[in-house]
Each structure stands twice: as C-alpha cells, then as structure tokens.
C-alpha cells in the first residue's frame, strides 16, 4: 500500500469526519507549465488521484501528451481537457484522442467549449465533440462536461440559465447513449447555498449526472479575486469582497474551509445529494492545495470506483 493512501497521524483527532468523507476521491487540475514545477506528484497527492490537465489555447498537443504520460506513469488517473473551440476539425480531434490513448494510456476526458469567443475550427460546443462518437469508439471510460452553478454570461448573456440548462438536459440524454460514465465538473464558487440550490434544481429537471463541485484551493486574496473575475465567477464573488474589507484578514490566504464544511455537512445529512466529489483549482499552487487537502483528511485515498 502506498504511504500516500494513509491518513497522517497528526490530523486523526482534529479532522471533521464529514469533510474527510466529502474529500474522498478529490481531483485536482494542472497545466503543463505548472506540472513541470512539480518534481514528483507522489510527494503531494494520494495514489490514484484524478489529475485534470487544462489545455490553454496555444499549448502544443505535444506538451499536453507528454504531461499526461508523465503523470500517468507516476500513478495518477489523468483526464485532459478537450476545448472544442481550439480543435480545428474531426481529424485533429481523432489524432488527439489517439495520442492520449496510445502514448499516455489515457481513457477519459473533460469536454468543454473553451474560453475563446469564437471557434478556431469546426467545433464550438462540447455537444459537437460528443456527437462525433470518437470518444466512445476509442473506449474512453469517463466523459466529463462543464457545469456552472452561478450561470455563465458567455452562454446566457441575459443572466438566465436557459441555455446552460438546455445543454445539460441534452447531455443527460446523451449519457444514456454512451458506454462511458459521465459527470459534471463545475466552475469554482465561494458560497454553499447557491451550489446546493443549483444541484437540487438539476435533479428536479431530471438531470442525475453526478456533480464534481469546483473549489478554489488556498491562495492569496488578491490572486483569488483576479482568477474569480477572469473566470466569470458570479454572485459568490461577494465572499471575497467582504473578506477584502477586513483589514485583519487582508494578508492571510483565503481557504475554502467554510464552503467545504457546509457542503460536507449537507452531504452527510442528505446522502442522496448529487454532488459526488470535489474538484480543486489550485490557484495558490499545487503543493499549497495538496497540503490543505491532506490536513483536512484528503490524504486517505480514493474510492474504488470514481464517477
């Protein structure tokens, strides 16, 4: 058994059991340039942790595949991004899928539109990627799609959820037609109440795809605000704004203790709650995020079966 599957003795008595359970099987996101700064992921993450690799426009596919292979070889479950708007055409998509599978042993993907205003090729949405059937044909075991608990102004400029909800309903139907497990990986936010309401509304609409809730890892407040604005975080940005007014906390790192604890307690009280796992955005660095997770019980390994 890997030492990284063991809960550190120093936190045994202080860890909130609800939080520990909620963090079980958490995932984390890296980019090739941030991954390159990590000497060995085995010193930071529990064995088998799912590691998403973000594909930012301009990053060569060679760098993505090389990073995927390296992290896979260190014992992790790699899930690269496939941003529709930077993929030129079907042949390019097929090439990427083949390279990830054959060179890095990858069999899962996060499909999303991507952050560009206009597509650079034939694809604009994750639905179009799914419709190609290429992932199913390649035997990908997990296909994740994006979720937006606070809406998305790029998709719904009027501030409603009409288009994002319609897209998730389409993906719900698609989930019945694919052999791969599907999950919704969300944008990060800072308040639990809107997340709980959003997740419950999905179920009310008949969308039962498991949710992996996006959580911003510990970071300086200024860093957190910068990323939150750039990523289009919605009303929960007010949590950071209130924190910025407290001079006594201005220089301290912002940590996700409150939202994690509140969601964990809600999950413990409502076992059927459809948030299945936590997905970390390590805005303050991978080591900082991994250390926070470990000290809050997130070093006790991953579930035998991940969604």
Strand and helix layout:
Layout: H1 17-23, E1 27-30, H2 32-35, E2 50-53, H3 61-73, E3 77-83, H4 90-104, E4 108-112, H5 126-131, H6 134-137, E5 142-147, H7 162-175, E6 181-188, H8 192-204, E7 211-216, H9 221-230, H10 238-244, H11 257-269, E8 275-281, H12 286-295
Parallel strand pairs: 1-2, 1-8, 2-3, 3-4, 4-5, 5-6, 6-7, 7-8
Helix pairs in contact: 1-11, 3-4
Organism: Paramylibacter kogurei
Keywords: Oxidoreductase
GO molecular function, one term: oxidoreductase activity
Describe this entry's structure for a reader.
With 307 residues, this protein is an alpha/beta fold. It has one domain: Alpha-Beta Barrel (TIM Barrel). It contains twelve helices and eight strands. The chain has helices spanning 17-23, 32-35, 61-73, 90-104, 126-131, 134-137, 162-175, 192-204, 221-230, 238-244, 257-269, 286-295; strands spanning 27-30, 50-53, 77-83, 108-112, 142-147, 181-188, 211-216, 275-281. Strands 1-2-3-4-5-6-7-8 form an eight-stranded parallel β-barrel. Helix 1 packs across helix 11 and helix 3 (61-73) packs parallel to helix 4 (90-104). It is globular, with a radius of gyration of 19 Å. Mean pLDDT is 88; it is low at 1-12. Keywords: Oxidoreductase. GO terms for molecular function: oxidoreductase activity. This is 5,10-methylenetetrahydrofolate reductase.
């Amino acid at each position: 058994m890997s030492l990284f599957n063991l809960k550190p003795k120093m936190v045994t008595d202080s860890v909130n059991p609800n939080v520990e359970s909620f963090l079980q099987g958490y995932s984390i996101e890296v980019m090739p340039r941030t991954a390159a700064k990590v000497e060995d992921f085995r010193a930071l993450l529990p064995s088998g942790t799912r590691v998403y690799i973000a594909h930012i426009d301009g990053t060569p596919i060679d760098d993505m595949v090389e990073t995927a292979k390296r992290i896979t070889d260190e014992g992790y479950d790699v899930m690269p991004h496939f941003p529709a708007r930077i993929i030129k055409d079907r042949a390019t998509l097929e090439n990427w899928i083949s390279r990830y599978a054959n060179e890095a042993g990858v069999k899962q993907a996060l499909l999303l539109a991507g952050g560009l205003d206009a597509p650079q090729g034939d694809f604009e949405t994750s639905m179009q990627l799914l419709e190609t059937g290429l992932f199913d044909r390649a035997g990908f075991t997990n296909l994740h799609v994006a979720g937006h608990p606070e809406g998305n102004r790029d998709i719904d400029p009027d501030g409603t959820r009409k288009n994002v909800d319609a897209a998730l309903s389409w993906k719900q139907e698609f989930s019945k037609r694919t052999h791969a497990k599907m999950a919704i990986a969300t944008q990060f936010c800072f308040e639990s109440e809107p997340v709980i309401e959003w997740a419950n509304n999905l179920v009310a609409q008949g969308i039962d795809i498991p949710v992996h809730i996006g959580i911003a890892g510990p970071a300086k407040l200024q860093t957190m605000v910068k990323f939150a604005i750039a990523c289009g975080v919605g009303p929960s940005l007010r949590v950071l704004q209130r924190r910025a007014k407290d001079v006594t906390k201005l220089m301290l790192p912002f940590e996700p203790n409150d939202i994690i604890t509140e969601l964990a307690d809600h999950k413990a009280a409502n076992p059927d709650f459809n948030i299945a796992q936590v997905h970390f955005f390590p805005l303050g660095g991978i080591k900082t995020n991994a250390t926070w997770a470990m000290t809050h019980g997130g070093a006790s390994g991953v579930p035998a079966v991940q969604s």
